[in-house]
Amino acid sequence: MTDRFGTIGAVSEPVRRRGVREIRNVLRGATPTHEHLRSRVSFVLGATLLLDVVASVFVLLFERHASGTQINNFGDAVFWTSTQLLTVSSQLPNPISTPARVLDIFLQAYAISVVAVLAGSFGAFFHRRGNEQDPPRAASSQGA
Questions:
Q1: Is the residue at 62 inside a domain?
Q2: SS in 3 state form for 1-17?
Q3: Among the listed residues 70, 74, 49, 48, the one whose alpha carbon sits nearest the alpha carbon of residue 61
Q4: Which of 110, 111, 122, 138 lies 20 to 30 Å (CA to CA) from residue 103?
Q5: Distances from the Cα of 93 to the Cα of 49, 58, 84, angstroms
Q6: What's the CATH code of the domain at 111?
Q7: Is residue 18 in some structural domain?
Q8: Which is nearest to 56 in space by CA: 14, 90, 7?
Q9: Which domain range does residue 57 map to?
Q10: Angle at CA 137, nearest 5°, toward 133 and 142?
Q11: Is residue 31 part of a domain?
Q12: With contact defined as beta carbons under 8 Å apart, do 92 and 71 qualify?
């Protein structure tokens, strides 16, 4: 199978197989580098899920009696909080109460920070894997 440039079958298949192998190695923690990435991603995922649940409870407590709010039940609160953490926002309007607005700012700051942490983690992973697969050559010593 190829696209109009003839590249999908010829180039992408080995790249795809290698990518799947790397993902599998991360899930297994095959090397210290893979284990390091797995631990960082796992921590961020766990912390985000915990924050999602806790923030959902708080936003429901803050908003459920606010006049004009559209966050009326736990499902609405989870939906709104999850979309804020995904940095995509939602169709629900911004919170009405001051405590919920402060929470909203915190959630957005957290989401941006998570993106930066994950970008750095993947960058470090690719750098370390590159060094594992093609170690840098030691600088030759010049006579003194």
A1: yes
A2: CCCCCCCHHHHHHHHHH
A3: 74
A4: 122
A5: 22, 17, 12
A6: 1.10.287.70
A7: no
A8: 90
A9: 46-131
A10: 175
A11: no
A12: yes
**pTM for the predicted model, two decimal places:** 0.77
Q: Nearest CA to 95 among 68, 117, 123, 119?
A: 68
Give dist(CA 22, CA 43) in Å, integer. 19
Q: Within 10 Å of residue 9's Cβ, how many Cβ atoms?
A: 10
Q: Give the separation between CA 96 and CA 64, rounded to whole angstroms.
A: 10
In this prediction, residue 16 carries a pLDDT of 80
Is residue 139, in this structure, part of any structural domain at all? no
Neighbours of 109 (CB within 10 A): 10
Say which residues have a Cβ less than 8 Å from residue 57's Cβ, sequence separation at least 6. 74, 77
Provide the domain count of the chain: 1
Instruction: Write the single-letter amino acid at 4.
Output: R
pLDDT in tens, 24-74: 989 998 899 899 999 999 999 999 999 999 999 999 999 998 888 889 999
